[in-house]
Amino acid sequence: MSRHNIVLSVNGKRTSLEVESDRSLLDVIREDLKLTGTKRGCDNGDCGACTVLLNGKPVNSCLVLAVQADGQDVSTIEGVALDDELHPIQEAFIEHGAVQCGFCTPAMIMTAKVLIEETPQPTREEIKKAISGTLCRCTGYVQIIDAIQSCGQSSK
To answer: Using one digit for the tens of pLDDT, what is the confidence trace for 35-72?
Structure first.
C-alpha cells in the first residue's frame, strides 16, 4: 500500500501526517490523532456516528479517505467547546436529556452546529431532515430535536 504525506487542519490546528492510501479519515482521527470523541459505528456510512465537519459540512468520516481530506479543515467534537466552556448546543443536549448512551451525541452535535449556523431558527422538520443521517437507539429523537430547537430559539 502506498503512503502519502497529508496536511489537515484539525480543530484549527495544522497537522502533518503520513498515511496509507486506503486509510479512512475516521481511522486517522481516532488512531493517529487520538481524538476518540468521533465514534466508529458501522464503517459503511449507514449510522452516521462518525460524523465530522469537513470544510464546515457534515460528512461520514468512515467514507472519506484521509488522502481526500488533504489540505482541508476538519472539525471534531473535541473542537466544539470553547476552552472549558461548553458550546450552547452541548449545553442544550444536557438540559434536554438528549444525551443517553452518548454514542450518537458527537455526530448529532456536529450536525446541529451546522444547521443552527445556516438556519438560526430551524423548524422541527428541518431538524429532522438535518439529523436523519445519524441513528439514535436511545432517545427516540424527541429530546435531540427539542435541544436543537431550543438552541435556535435562544439565538433570537
So the answer is: 999 999 999 999 999 999 999 999 999 999 999 999 99
The backbone region for 56, taken as left when phi is positive above 0, alpha when psi lies in -120 to 50, beta otherwise, is left
Query: 3-78 in CATH: which number?
Result: 3.10.20.30
We find that the CATH architecture of domain 88-154 is: Orthogonal Bundle (1.10)
SS3 labels along the chain: CCEEEEEEEECCEEEEEEEECCCEHHHHHHHHCCCCCCCCCCCCCCCCCCEEEECCEEEECCCCEHHHHCCCEEECHHHCCECCECCHHHHHHHHCCCCCCCCCHHHHHHHHHHHHHHCCCCCHHHHHHHHCCCCCCCCCCHHHHHHHHHHHHHCC
The interaxial angle of helices 142-154 and 88-95, nearest 10 deg, is 140
pTM comes to: 0.94
Asked if residue 120 lies in contact with residue 69, where contact means CB atoms within 8 angstroms, the answer is no
Domain with CATH 3.10.20.30 in the chain: 3-78
What pLDDT digit, counting tens, does each position of 81-109 carry?
988 899 999 999 999 999 989 999 999 99
